[in-house]
What we know:
Layout: H1 20-34, E1 44-45, E2 50-51, E3 63-71, H2 76-79, E4 84-87, E5 90-92, H3 97-110, H4 114-117, E6 121-126, H5 132-144, E7 150-152, E8 155-156
Parallel strand pairs: 2-8, 3-6, 6-7
Antiparallel strand pairs: 1-3, 3-4, 4-5
Amino acid sequence: MSKFKKKRGKSKPAISTASLPDIIFMLLFFFMVVTVLREEELLVQVRIPSATELTKIEDKSLVNQIHIGRPTAQNQSIYGTSPRVQLDDKIIENTALGSEIAKFLAEKRSVLTESERSRMTNALKIDGEATVGIVEDVKVELRKNNSYRLMYSTNLRTQDLD
C-alpha cells in the first residue's frame, strides 16, 4: 500500500479577483475625466456683439442662460424666422413669455439655497439682429418675477473701432 494517493480530478486554482476593483475604478476615473457634459443645445442663432469692458463671472452655477435670436435653419419650418426666446433646451412662444419665464425661474430657484437665490443672475445672449421689443419683453417679465440681476453676454473686442 502506498502512502501517497493520487488525487483524481485535480481542479485548477480560481482566478484571483483582487485587482478587479482597481481596474474598475481606473476605468471610472478615465470616463469621468474624458466625458464632457452637455449644458444645452442652441436652437436659435446668436451672433453676440463685441465689447471692450468685460468682467468675468465667478460662480457660473448661479447663472441662467437666456438666448434670444432667430431659429436655426432646421427649426425655421416650425418656429418661423422671427426672433424667439430659448430657455434651456426649449424655444418658447412669444405669447406665453410671462408664464414660461416664471416657470423657468421657479425651477432654477428651487434647486438653490436661500443665500444663493439672491445671487442668481440671468445672462442674456442676444443676436445682434434681434429687435429691442422682444428683449424688453424678457426684461419686464424678469422684473415681474423679482429677478433683478441681469447680465449681457458679449465677446471681447480685440481692436478699437475708431
